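## retry 2 of 3
previous attempt timed out at serialization; input unchanged, resubmitting
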Amino acid sequence: MNVWIQLHDFSSEDLKDPSSENALKLYNEFDWDSEILKEENANAEGIECCDPGMGFVSDDHSILHLVPTSTGAMVHYHFRKAGRFLGLFPTVRDEAISVTDYPSEEIQDLVLEHYRGNQRSVKELLSEFGNEAAEASSSVSERVNQAIREALSEDLDDLQAFRDRESEPTMDFESFLKRMRSDGRL
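## retry succeeded, writing output
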């Protein structure tokens, strides 16, 4: 597990001993109010900055990111999900779940489940907060699949239109142009 504190100025501090106990202790003891105040001051002065928070990257590359708030934390969980491209080819896609106000009393359980590598439990804990938990609506591969389906559907429509009109008489291009000119369309 790789654990770090993200400061308002985009700098970060890695946790040297990233055990769950040390990570939770650091999260609970860090002066978030001071760091949030620094972020607010930087914003007021027009200085580029970011939300301070704490990140946890597991060996399977899933990321739990906590951004402390006055009532808990904004939580972002990024994970990989197996799927199929066009329903045939195995793929892995990145997905995310975000919760805007995760209760502070639930953070320890969330972090511990992430440490255990229990992706299902992390997603279940986040989804307990109903409308606030929003799984990314579509991954890149899902959007590509949808675009391909739409293109193939248009091709099917074109083929059907061709079949419907194949009994009509044909006309060479020069005759077509002459007819368009005589009808006043060109």
